[in-house]
Amino acid sequence: MLSRTIAEQALAAALKTGGDFAEIFYEDTRSSSLTLNAGAIETALTGRSAGAGVRVYKGLSSVYVFTNDVSLSGLVRAAQKAADAIGSADRTVDVRLTGAIPRNIHAIAQLPMDVPGARRARVVKAADAAARAVSAEVSQVTARLYDWETDVVIANSEGLFIPDRRVYTRLALTAVASAGGESQTGSCNPGAMMGFELFDGRVDPEEVGRRAAKQAVTMLHAEPCPAGVMCAVIDKGFGGVIFHEACGHSLEATSVGLDSSVFCGKLGQKIAADCVNAVDDGTIPNAWGSLNLDDEGTPAQRNVLIENGVLKGYLVDRLGSRRMGMAMTGSARRQDYTFAPTSRMTNTFICAGEDDGDEMIATMGDGLYAAKMGGGSVNPVTGEFNFTV
Q1: First-to-last CA distance in the chain?
Q2: H-state helical runs in the chain
Q3: N or C: at which end does the chain have fewer Cβ atoms within 10 angstroms?
Q4: Structure letter (DSSP) for residue 163
Q5: β-sheet bridge partners, residue 171
């Protein structure tokens, strides 16, 4: 783990040439995956990745340098490279870090890396067997169990020094149904910010297998969906992808701060129907997108984005905060320590309304009922989005 003494010296080196803010993000990730294919365990892998990134700001200029040498000399060397790129002054800076007490709002009962391989294998085998039992038309099943445990330490020149642990577990199953020379695929991929207790009631591996297989078989015999403009009713749960694509990314400071979003300058304006209330909430216990604190050390929070159809806020990281003059919202995320952070969603959803679902169906006429969404994409500049159903 990163020590406070090393962090202080590296941050001082990063500020030596005139930067006005410096930050270190240390990360140590242990991961494992188990894959079952064609009824047999195909791969069982473990890995470890560790390193740190040093970021320096000078106004709106930002430099990011990363290294997997987290010794004092390695981090100072990375900090000096960042400092050399940000300015040319020569000054002495004294950095003193105050340890913050980490909070854990996402309890972990059983670390996945402590679970024996035989128990892991039972999970993927149960999912595989359930999928194959759905229909003789299920021709192929791939089940993958993967998890990771990440310890991070975030330190910055404002005095922050705070550790955090993130644990995630997911079961991903893909089933292929085939008949008459045609094949269709179904999938089910539940996961959470949890340990192996994910399978002690929250996720049933057999149900995961059945859902994926039924989807594949249904698609195999489905008639082509008619094209055209029509009414649509989108189910709850993963139907939230429509908000994720239609609005979520366009409300991130990554786009808004660069004036590259259709929602720029629209705070306080009506952008949706009165019944629409939309939230980004990183504090939901053990949800996949949840956090204790974001990748800049800002505590996770519940951000109201749209209230009664009115735009109330954006998702803001530190650089976005500087550009936009707005408070940070606990929305900074990195792919890993080799990447500088950017603004991203946590758990984003439309709040429950008061309309009756059966009435929606009864009054829509001919239309599309979307039970579950797939992936999608958006162009934040134009607001055009798409996703699969």
Answers
A1: 44
A2: 4-14, 72-86, 117-134, 205-221, 241-243, 253-256, 318-324, 357-363
A3: N
A4: E
A5: 145
pLDDT in tens, 175-223: 999 999 999 999 999 999 999 999 999 999 999 999 999 999 999 999 9
Q: Quote the distance between the C-alpha of residue 77 and its chain's center.
A: 31
CA distances from 122 to 119, 199, 205, 211, 353 (A): 5, 11, 9, 18, 40
Q: From 292, 269, 289, select the one nearest 349 (Cα to Cα).
A: 289
Read off the pTM. Answer: 0.93
Tokens of 189: 């991929």
Between β-strands 98-99 and 367-370, what pairing exists: parallel, antiparallel or unpaired?
unpaired
Q: How far is CA 372 from CA 24, 65, 164, 187, 331, in A?
A: 40, 41, 34, 11, 26
Max distance between CA atoms of the chain, in angstroms, equals 75
How far, in Å, CA of 234 to CA of 372, rounded?
8
With cut-offs at 50, 70 and 90, classify the pLDDT of residue 240. Answer: confident
Would you say residue 245 has pLDDT above 90?
no
Q: Return d(Cα 335, Cα 25) in angstroms, integer.
A: 12
Structure tokens at 104: 């854990």
HSE-CB of 318 using CA atoms within 13 angstroms: 24
Q: Report pLDDT digits (tens) over 78-106.
A: 999 999 999 999 999 999 999 888 889 99
Is the CB of residue 270 less than 8 Å from the CB of residue 310?
A: yes
Residue type, 36: L
User: Do the strands 367-370 and 231-234 form a parallel or antiparallel pair, or are they unpaired?
Assistant: parallel
Residue whose structure tokens are 């670390």: 111
Crossing angle of helices 72-86/4-14, nearest 10°? 20
User: Using the 8-state DSSP alphabet, how is residue 64 labeled?
Assistant: E
Residue whose tokens read 């996703």: 387
Residue 88: burial class (beta carbons within 10 Å; 0-12, 13-18, 19+): exposed
- From the number of C-beta atoms within 10 Å of its C-beta (0-12, 13-18, 19+), residue 342 rates as middle
The average pLDDT across 256-266 equals: 95
What one-letter code names the amino acid at 299? P
What is d(CA 302, CA 154) in angstroms, rounded to the nearest whole number? 21
Distance CA 290, CA 167 (A): 11
CA distance 226 to 193: 39
Q: 234: which 2 tokens?
A: 């989108």
